[in-house]
Structure formats: structure tokens, C-alpha cells
């Protein structure tokens, strides 16, 4: 009888899990909208590299951590400029007709140079630098990702001093509702093909860059979070710091939609207006503890990253 009940319960839950993922439905650059393609669906010209499924990338060494699940080159490249305001519209479900389903975890944006047209650039070994990171709102309880779940885009500005050329913009949501176990984190990366104009000279240094996979490890703070449901919360972002040339107020100026990103230099603040309360669906709630701020775990994390970099250097290709 109990087994029967269990079977019924699982059957009832299953459709929820199947649809509880998503992808980038469209991107808006300085007011111009660029549609994406449905995962695994028809391929129309786009600036967003198409992924094969709405399912998350699992595991920090997964090759799909680069640009999303089995991402393929996109045909188009959008023009943008230093300081351009970009909205990345994350949507839920296989056709994007529902809101993004997760509200626990960070929003980060990276860039890498394409060394030519981004429509033909294989980013497998690309060196990425971070231009923004957003975790917890000032209440140390609500994640900015809750705004995405409430239907807001992820906002990010192109660094105002960046040197011109072809660049991939990598938008990434990490959903941590299962991150109490190693390997539980869900990675959702997406790559957007840009051609940046202007006459800037800004660039990241090599120590601010890393590869995907390579930037993360499964057991580092910010990805493996056993205390995520134990407030108060302090979040340690995975990956490198925001590149110094991005500047402290790179995207915090008047053109930013609203809200004040805390913590990170460049901040892509999801438009606020609404200030979603932390939601709990079923057994998942959104808390992360302050354990990772002590010196010991920070030092451990640095060692892990150094070891990982060495491993990457030795990789034959
Ligand atoms: Cu999901």
C-alpha cells in the first residue's frame, strides 16, 4: 500500500521535474530584440547558440559547461558597443511559455574573444573573464535569481572600456536547490554572439581568465553548498573575480534598469520593481550559510583552483 502511494506520488511529481528547466528565449541589446531557438527544435538564424535540451548541465567537468547542452554555432552576430545594455530573457519549459522555474543560486556573465567572426568560433578552449556576478539581495535571504523566476530578464552591461572585436557573452544561471550534494548543482550556460565596436582598449588579464570546463570544481564553495537551507547566508561566487577593467561602476549607472546589485563590481541587476519573496516549492527553499567566508576554506578553494588549472594546462588539446 505504501509502495502504491509512493508510485502515485512519483508519477504526480514527474511532469513537474521534466518541465522544471529552461533556456534563453531571447536577448535584447540596447532595445533591439533577438530571438533564440527552442532547445532541440528548428534552427533559425539567431545570435544565441542553440542547445539540445532544456535540461541542466551537470558536473563541473562537463564539456557542455562551455555554452550549454550540446550547443551549436549560431548563424548571426549582433552589433553592440562598450556600455551596451543587454537583457537576457531566461524562460521555462521546452517552448519557453512559462517563467524560469528556479530561484536559488547566482547569475553570472562572462565574455571571451572570438578571434574572428563569432559565428564560426569554437570556444572549447576559450579563456573567459567574468563581467558580472549577482547572488543574494541585501536581505541575505532572497536570491536575485528569484527575479528571473518572476519573469524579469538578467541584465548586464558590456564593459565601457572594452576593446573592439568579436566576443561571446556567456550568460549563466546556476540553480542550487539540489546543491546540498556534490554534483547537485544545475548549470545553465548560454552563449550570445556579439561584434563590439568602439575604440576601447580594456581587456582582462590572463590571471582573471579560465576555461569552461575548468573555471569550476564540483566541491568548491558556491557550487557544493551543504548548508544552503541554513540562514543567515553568505555566498561565495565560483570562478574568477570580476575582471578589474570592468570597473566598479561599470553597469551601475543611470541606464541600468533598477535595483542595486550588491557585492560585485559590475552587477547585472535583474530589474526590480517587484521584490519577490523567497519562495519555497515543495521541499526546496533557498538558504546558504556563511561557512565559506573563513580563511581556511578560502585557502582550500584557491588550492583546488590552482590544481585544476595545472590539470588543464597538461591537457593534450
Ligand atoms: Cu530546472
Automatic annotation (TrEMBL):
One of the record's GO cellular component terms: extracellular region
Signal peptide start and end residues: 1-20
Similarity annotation: Belongs to the polysaccharide monooxygenase AA9 family.
PANTHER family per UniProt: ENDO-BETA-1,4-GLUCANASE D, PUTATIVE (AFU_ORTHOLOGUE AFUA_1G12560)-RELATED
Taxonomy, superkingdom: Eukaryota
Location relative to the cell: Secreted
Lineage start: Eukaryota, Fungi, Dikarya, Basidiomycota, Agaricomycotina
Enzyme Commission no: 1.14.99.56
Sequence segments annotated as region (Disordered): 248-317
Xref: InterPro entries: AA9, AA9_LPMO
Name of the molecule in the record: lytic cellulose monooxygenase (C4-dehydrogenating)
CDD domains: LPMO_AA9
Amino acid at each position: 500500500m505504501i509502495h502504491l502511494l509512493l508510485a502515485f506520488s512519483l508519477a504526480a511529481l514527474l511532469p513537474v521535474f521534466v518541465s522544471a528547466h529552461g533556456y534563453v528565449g531571447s536577448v535584447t541589446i540596447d532595445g533591439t530584440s533577438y530571438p533564440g531557438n527552442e532547445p532541440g527544435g528548428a534552427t533559425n538564424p539567431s545570435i544565441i547558440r542553440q542547445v539540445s535540451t532544456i535540461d541542466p548541465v551537470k558536473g563541473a567537468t562537463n564539456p557542455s559547461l562551455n555554452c550549454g547542452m550540446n550547443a551549436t554555432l549560431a548563424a548571426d552576430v549582433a552589433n553592440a558597443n562598450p556600455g551596451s545594455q543587454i537583457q537576457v530573457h531566461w524562460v521555462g519549459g521546452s517552448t519557453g511559455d512559462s517563467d524560469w522555474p528556479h530561484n536559488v543560486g547566482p547569475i553570472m556573465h562572462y565574455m571571451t574573444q572570438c578571434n574572428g567572426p563569432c559565428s564560426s568560433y569554437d570556444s572549447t578552449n576559450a579563456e573567459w573573464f567574468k563581467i558580472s556576478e549577482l547572488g543574494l539581495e541585501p536581505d541575505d535571504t532572497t536570491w536575485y535569481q528569484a527575479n528571473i523566476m518572476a519573469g524579469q530578464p538578467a541584465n548586464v552591461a558590456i564593459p565601457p572600456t572594452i576593446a573592439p572585436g568579436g566576443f561571446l557573452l556567456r550568460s549563466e544561471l546556476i540553480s542550487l536547490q539540489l546543491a546540498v550534494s556534490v554534483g547537485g548543482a544545475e548549470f545553465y550556460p548560454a552563449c550570445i554572439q556579439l561584434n563590439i565596436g568602439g575604440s576601447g582598449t580594456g581587456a582582462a588579464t590572463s590571471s582573471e581568465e579560465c576555461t569552461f570546463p575548468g573555471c569550476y570544481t564540483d566541491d568548491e564553495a558556491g557550487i557544493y553548498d551543504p548548508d544552503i537551507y541554513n540562514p543567515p547566508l553568505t555566498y561565495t561566487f565560483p570562478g574568477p573575480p570580476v575582471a578589474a577593467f570592468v570597473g566598479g561602476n561599470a553597469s551601475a549607472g543611470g541606464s541600468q534598469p533598477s535595483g542595486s546589485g550588491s557585492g560585485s563590481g559590475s552587477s547585472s541587476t535583474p530589474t526590480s520593481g517587484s521584490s519577490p519573496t523567497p519562495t519555497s516549492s515543495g521541499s526546496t527553499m533557498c538558504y546558504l550559510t556563511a561557512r565559506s567566508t573563513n580563511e581556511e576554506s578560502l585557502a582550500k578553494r584557491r588550492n583546488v583552483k590552482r590544481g585544476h588549472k595545472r590539470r588543464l594546462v597538461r591537457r593534450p588539446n
